[in-house]
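Can you give me the bound-state structure? Components:
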Amino acid sequence: MDLLLVAWRYLVARPITLVSTLSVTVGLIAVVVVDSVMNGFLAEHRAMIRALAPDVTVDVSSLPAAKARRVLEELRASPDVRAASPRAEAPAIHGESGGPALVAVPGHGDEHFVNLIGLDPAEADPATAVIDLQRFLAHDRCGYSERARLPGAEPDCPLRVERRSDPFWFDPADPFWRARMATEYRHRDDLIPIVFGEELALGFEYRVGTVVTISTFGGDPWRDARLKVLQHQFVVVGTFVTRDHHFDVTHALVPLGRLAAFAALETPMQEIAVASAALDEAALRDRLRAPLAVAGLPAKAVESWADRKSLLLGAVENERRVMNVAMFFVVIVATFSLFVTLHQMVRRKTRDIGVLAALGAPPLHAGRLFMLCGLMVTGAGALLGFVLGLTLAHSLNALLAAVAWATGWHLFDPALFQFRGLPIRVDAGRIGWYALASVVCGTLFTLLPSWRAARLDPVEALRHE
Amino acid sequence: MSDSRAIRVSGLRRDFLSAGHVLQILKGADLEVACGESVAIVGRSGGGKSTLLHLIGLLDRPTAGSIELEGVETTKASRATRDRLRRDRIGFVFQFYHLLAELTAEQNVLLGAMMNVSPLKWLARRAASRRAAQALLERVGLADRARHLPSRLSGGERQRVAIARALLRDPAVLLCDEPTGNLDEGTSGEVENLLIEIQRERRAAMVLVTHNLRLAARLDRMLVLEGGRLRPVQPGDGLRGGLAAALQ
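Here's the bound-state model for the whole set.
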């Protein structure tokens, strides 16, 4: 009990120890805020780059069509799988019908490139859909009119479509479509419906009802000496918006069957998109690999969406780790000040160590006293840092808004990252570990002064001037 | 010697190494103090008086010889036993009071009672210990200064707090190292009176090291530490004679 009393009184009597406590607090606040922001960035990036990717993708392009269908059925029967649907992709070049033949125009390939994703009709039904497509469809958006500030902007809403369960709904006889299509295309029921990324549609001023010509190559590039250029006219029936800008300007959705027919795909099912029933994507991937190996699929044919984006995700995660290590050095420097403070305290309190010994304290008592001092300083600093750090992290956006309002200075522009604000995601568990690490760090720095105190000869200590 | 013997020191030797040389400070000192007896030890500065107190107080170990406290041989006792004896059976009063500057007078007095006591146990004992500390502070005339820090007390008051601290565990042995050495004459007299009264009240064996011959003469016995050995005061050692000269 005397240790608690003496340690507390020593610390209270010395404002310098408050500096050590505050140093640990500030260091830990920095760690908490940086960790929470980097965590937020990681979570936002995960949401952004995932776009329309399913939990797990099984590449069945190496399998014969019949075997691929069996794999699909097996997957649909698996209790771990909520839904599975086939997908195909075909690279293509797009351009508004009536324009130049794009494949013949040098340089157009880059700008007009689009990756067509063939979706199964099952994707229209939320009960059987692998991804909730409706969440991404931009039914109610005005498109150009949202950019009314641009010169020549149209006053209407060229990208608005009726919300229907079928994302590829197109009926040339319906007044909706008749009102939106050029006269020469009305009554054309061979047009293939296509849903572009909104950014792509805006960039090329495609509106709902615009007819575009899509070109791709037919034939097997490994066997056919000459590939055939395949062209067809598509009608824009809607747009989608994900948070991945690059995905939105390079992809378009079309019905799987129509894509297979247009692009003359030998196997209309190249991949199977799989949604998990309950497991996370990595666990589902691992669960599926063994049974699919029996079907002749190598492990690398079964990938989670995070595997496919592992480079980018890994980069952000790595950045978070490096930032946290850098920030933790602040805590180390802060706790080092404790070493200096305690070192001086032991020198000044040498005679007290002798007095405690005269009162019956065992030799290690003095060491424990200064260890306790260190523990109290870092413990209080870590606790304060933990609480204040969490509070600051939770209110950081409000704080930044207040600073911007008061000074006009915007520290962070969320539009640059397509964020709504500074992303914050607090991982209290990990922050708890950082707090504990700072206490351990502080304790390590108190070891040497405490050891010195413990080794003092009580007689010498009593004689100390 | 009867069971009433509190301290028995025999053949005590203490050597120190200094600059490669062995300094023999104590060369076979012998001492016996009965319970309730007070003994003054006088001698030259640097003669080993404080060393003798530190050895009897179990803060140091002798090079040779034995020290018995209440019949317990301490020189070969374990560290834990020596710590326990020091905590429970010995009280120290120092020349420079040695109060902890950050603690109040009452907390300084209570310090010994808190030693090696867990916070939970302390909760149970706290009230009784505080009552004991208050009674002691009242006994030394400082009941109204219990919450004062040492910096707000005079030298005499600090020494009285130190006396109260030494007495809290009701020690069998009271060791005083120049208890009035840092006080003016008036205050010194008050502290002397208090110390002697309390020692007699409590029947503690007291060994008091001093240069103050007036104080030494008030105790039951006076011994001279000379040449590393203790000897009784002899007729020629009169206060006005050779003894005073020996203390210069």
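A couple of observations. Chain B touches chain A through 31 residues (CB under 8 Å). The mean pLDDT of chain B is 87.
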